[in-house]
Amino acid sequence: MQRLTSLITAALLSAGLMSATAHAQDASAPADAPAAAQAQNFADEDLQKFADASQDISAISQDYTQRLQEAEGQEAQQDVRVEANQKMVEAVQQSGLEVDTFNSIGQAIQQDPEMMKRVQEMAASTE
């Protein structure tokens, strides 16, 4: 169970990284986006895609955390962050989700313990 929680936590941290990039690119995003995400109902298919992408993102996060620690200087660290972000975005897109949908699910499961449990069960069934 702790492993699943770590997986989801890594995914949410990664989603925040991608979200920050998306917001920097799109300053017109509504300020109440987390509230809107909480109200959405996501199909089991999308939740499964989220669980699958989360596993990939967890692995990417672990790899790039090590690289970030080894990077010397702020410019090198920023390069590592950008590369990690690109890999995470690719993982989400390869899962069949849009980054915005992934981020919305990530925000929703933070607010909905039942949805979190469903995603954890989905992640456990694919291990």
UniProtKB/TrEMBL annotation:
One Pfam assignment: DUF4168
Domain DUF4168: 44-119
Cleavable signal peptide: 1-24
Keyword list, A-Z: Signal
Signal recorded as keyword: yes
The protein's name in its UniProt record: DUF4168 domain-containing protein
